[in-house]
Structure formats: structure tokens, C-alpha cells
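With this grant's support, we have paired protein sequences with C-alpha cells. One protein thus recorded is set out beneath this paragraph:

_____
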Amino acid sequence: MEEEKVEKAKLAGGTTVTEVAETKTRLKSKHKVIRKRKSKKEKENPLSSAIRLAVESGKVGFGSRKGIKDILMGNIKLAVIASNVPPSLAEDVRRFGEISEIPLVMFPGTSIELGSICGKPFPVSVLAVYEEGVSNILEFEKKK
């Protein structure tokens, strides 16, 4: 609507070039992108923040091979498994976890999401937690 006024003013010759430029910049500034706030349902998963804290402040290991070895040795306190790991791998981790009495937590996201939460540029299928640091990640195994 204002753009039409600017065009009519140009044709009529009643405005200067600077006035036209000012109105165009005013029109562009009205179309700013507004960031949407996250609602209570969309806030970050508490498991994700606990995993991030454990990676930053505790000791963790990444990968299925290392995770399975450490589960069998009984060196870890908790294992986190991504939701999209192959069924055979998930079954092996579950079986070895039951034998060694190590709790398992299923991460609801994919291995790529788990890797990005851990701050790694690659997918993480199994996360082995040796020391939790200041995180509350061990509370999630008690809920299950």
C-alpha cells in the first residue's frame, strides 16, 4: 500500500529522491524476522541437557564397539542408546547390559542428534558414561 504511494509520488514528481529512499528503507525495516519463543512443550528434553552436562563435566565414551566392551567389563555406570541403531546392535547392548547389571537409557532422538548434543560432528550410537560429573543423568535410569 505504501509502495503504491511511493510510485504515485514518483510519477507526480512531488517527492525527492531522498524521500523515496527513506520510505523504501522504512518498508524494508517492517519485515524483520521475529524469533519464536519455545513453549513449555517445545523446551529442550531434560535428558539432552543431562547428556550435554555429562559430556562437558564427566567422563564418557563414544561408539558401539567401545560401549559394548566397557559394558562387558563393567567399567561404566550407564549406557545411552540412540533410537535408530540397528536392532541387532540394540539387542547386544541390552543383553550385555543385563548380564553386567548396567542400566540402559534409550535416547528418543537419532544418532546424529545424539552426536550433536555431545558436541561431536559425527553420529553417536552408544554413549558410555564412566563418571557423570555434575549432571543428573543417573536419575533417568531410575525412572525407567
